[in-house]
Design goal:
The complex is a heterodimer of chains A (about 220) and B (about 260). Chain A is mainly alpha-helical. Chain A contains eight helices and no strands. Chain A has one domain: MetI-like (MetI-like fold), CATH 1.10.3720.10. The radius of gyration of chain A is 21 Å and the shape is flat. Chain B is α/β, with parallel strands linked by helices. Chain B has one domain: P-loop containing nucleotide triphosphate hydrolases (Rossmann fold, 3-Layer(aba) Sandwich), CATH 3.40.50.300. Helix content of chain B is about 35%, strand content about 25%. In chain B, the strands form three sheets. In chain B, strands 8-9-10-3-11-12 form a six-stranded mixed beta sheet, with helices on both faces. In chain B, helix 3 packs across helix 4, helix 4 packs across helix 5 and helix 5 runs parallel beside helix 6. The chains are: A mainly alpha (about 220), B alpha/beta (about 260).
Chain lengths: ~220, ~260
C-alpha cells in the first residue's frame, strides 16, 4: 500500500506538471476558437460573398482533416519555411484554428435558430442592428449554443493529448517520457487518464449546471 | 387636423412578385385607420413598409412632415444609414402577429430595454416607465415573469406595452390577435380600444371586422396590392360599393 502511494507520488509529480500545460493549452485554444467562431459566424450573416466563400473553405478544410495533421503542418511545415513556432504556441494555433471551424458552425446554427421576428422587434423599437445583435440576438444565441459549445470544450480538453506529438509538455508527453524510463506502461497511462477525468468531469458538471440555470427563462 | 403619416406611390415587389402596386394613404394625428382585405392582398406588407421593416421598391413615406427612411438631395432620394433609420423607427411602435417578446428578458425588461439602450434613460427611470406602461395594459402583476410563462394574450399585451414605452407618434398593429386562441382575443382588443380612446394615432391590420368598426375612424380595403375602397367604417363596412369588398365582408361576417 505504502509502495503504491510512493509510486503515485513519484509519477504524479511530472504528470501534474503536464496537467498545468494541458489546462493552459485548452484555455488558450478555446479563446482562439471562440474568437474565430464568433467573428466568422457573424461575417457569414452579412459579409460579401467572396468572404463567406473563404470562410466556408476554411471551415471545410479544418473540419475534414485530422487535427494532428494540422498541428504537424503548423509546427514542422512552418519550421520548414523558416518560421520557428514553439510547441505550445503551435499547439494553440492548431487546436484554435481547428476549433474555430467547429465553433463557426455551432454559432452560425445558433444565430439561425433565433427567430427573425426577434430581430424585427428589436429594430422596430429603434435599436440599431448592432444593438439588436448585442442585447437581443447574441444572448439568445449563447443559450442555444451553450450545450454544444460545452461539449466542444470537453472534447478539446481531451484532444490536447495529440499535441504531445510535437513535444508540447502536457500530460501525455510526460506520461510517455515516464513510460520510457520506468516501463510501467499500464499504471502510468491509467494515472494519466484519471488526471484527464479529474479535469474533464468538473467541466462537464459545470456545463450541465449552466444549462439548467439558463433554462430558468423558459 | 395635422397630417401625421403620408404614404405616396408605394410599390413593393419580392423578386418578380408584385405585392404593392401604388398605394397612397394619409393619416392625421389621432386618427385610427384599419386595413382589411383577403390574405395575400398586401396589407401586412403595406404596414411593414411604413416603418421600413420592408424597404419599399419605390414610393415615399413621410412621418410628421419628415421623409422616412430616405434622404433627399437635389431631387434624388438615397437610403438612410441603419443608424439614422433606427432613430426614425423609434418614433413608431409596432405590434406583431407573433408577439416576438424577447424570451431572455422578463416582462419589465422587455418594456424597459429600449428606453435604456435606445433613448439612454437611466435604469430607474426606464423601470418606472415600464411600470406605467405595464399598468396601461393591465400586466403590472406579471412584471417579473418571463414571456414563456405568459399566455398568448398576456404576451401580446406586454408587447403593446413595449411599443408604448417608445412613446411613439404612431402605433402599427399587424394582425395583433390572429395568433391568439379565441378566448384570449378580447383582452388584447380591449387594450387596443383603450389606446384608441386616448387619441393615439394608429394603423391596424386586422381580420376583426367588428372591432375595426368600433375603433377605426377610417377603413381601407385592399385587394391585389392596391386600395380598392376606403372611407369611414359606416360606409365601407355597412354600405360597400365594391363587389369584391361585398364578397369579402360576406365571407368574414357569417350570416346570423
Amino acid at each position: 500500500m505504502l509502495e503504491l502511494l510512493q509510486k503515485i507520488y513519484d509519477l504524479g509529480g511530472p504528470l501534474l506538471l503536464g496537467a498545468v500545460t494541458t489546462v493552459e493549452i485548452t484555455v488558450l485554444s478555446f479563446i482562439v476558437a471562440l474568437s474565430i467562431g464568433l467573428l466568422f459566424a457573424l461575417l457569414k450573416l452579412g459579409a460579401p460573398k467572396p468572404v463567406v466563400w473563404l470562410i466556408n473553405v476554411y471551415v471545410e478544410v479544418f473540419r475534414n482533416t485530422p487535427v494532428l495533421a494540422q498541428v504537424f503542418i503548423i509546427y514542422f511545415g512552418l519550421a520548414h519555411t523558416g518560421i520557428q513556432v514553439a510547441a505550445i504556441p503551435a499547439a494553440v494555433i492548431g487546436l484554435g484554428l481547428n476549433g474555430g471551424a467547429i465553433l463557426t458552425e455551432i454559432i452560425r446554427a445558433g444565430l439561425a435558430a433565433v427567430h427573425k421576428g426577434q430581430r424585427e422587434a428589436a429594430l422596430s423599437v429603434g435599436m440599431t442592428p448592432w444593438t439588436s445583435l448585442r442585447f437581443i440576438i447574441l444572448p439568445q444565441t449563447w443559450r442555444i449554443t451553450l450545450p454544444p459549445m460545452g461539449n466542444y470544450a470537453i472534447a478539446l480538453l481531451k484532444d490536447t493529448a495529440v499535441v504531445s506529438a510535437i513535444a508540447a509538455p502536457e500530460i501525455m508527453f510526460y506520461a510517455r517520457n515516464l513510460v520510457t524510463s520506468t516501463f510501467d506502461t499500464t499504471f502510468i497511462y491509467i494515472l494519466a487518464a484519471l488526471l484527464y477525468f479529474a479535469l474533464s468531469f468538473p467541466l462537464a458538471r459545470m456545463v450541465n449546471h449552466f444549462e439548467q440555470r439558463q433554462r430558468a427563462w423558459q | 387636423m395635422e397630417q401625421l403619416l403620408q404614404v405616396e406611390g408605394l410599390h413593393k415587389s419580392f423578386g418578380s412578385l408584385d405585392v404593392l402596386m401604388g398605394v397612397d394613404m394619409a393619416l392625421e394625428r389621432g386618427q385610427k385607420t384599419a386595413i382589411i382585405g383577403p390574405s395575400g392582398c398586401g396589407k401586412s406588407t403595406l404596414l411593414r413598409c411604413i416603418n421600413y421593416m420592408e424597404i419599399p421598391t419605390s414610393g415615399h413615406i413621410h412621418l410628421d412632415g419628415e421623409l422616412f427612411g430616405e434622404k433627399k438631395a437635389n431631387d434624388s432620394f438615397t437610403r438612410m444609414s441603419e443608424k439614422e433609420l433606427a432613430v426614425q423607427r423609434a418614433q413608431i411602435g409596432m405590434v406583431f402577429q407573433g408577439f416576438y417578446l424577447w424570451p431572455h428578458l422578463n416582462a419589465r425588461d422587455n418594456v424597459a430595454i429600449s428606453a435604456i439602450k435606445v433613448r439612454g434613460m437611466s435604469k430607474a427611470a426606464a423601470y418606472e416607465l415600464a411600470e406605467d406602461m405595464l399598468e396601461k395594459v393591465h400586466m403590472s402583476h406579471k412584471a417579473d415573469e418571463f414571456p414563456e410563462r405568459l399566455s398568448g394574450g398576456q404576451q401580446q399585451r406586454v408587447a403593446i406595452a413595449r411599443a408604448l414605452a417608445q412613446e411613439p407618434k404612431l402605433m402599427l398593429f399587424d394582425e395583433p390577435t390572429s395568433a391568439l386562441d379565441p378566448e384570449l382575443i378580447g383582452e388584447v382588443l380591449k387594450v387596443i380600444h383603450e389606446l384608441a380612446d386616448e387619441g393615439r394615432s394608429m394603423v391596424l391590420v386586422t381580420h376583426e371586422i367588428r372591432f375595426a368598426r368600433d375603433v377605426a375612424d377610417r377603413v381601407i380595403f385592399m385587394g391585389d396590392g392596391v386600395i380598392v375602397e376606403e372611407g369611414p367604417p359606416s360606409e365601407v363596412l355597412e354600405n360597400p360599393k365594391n363587389e369584391r369588398l361585398r364578397g369579402f365582408l360576406h365571407q368574414i361576417i357569417k350570416p346570423e
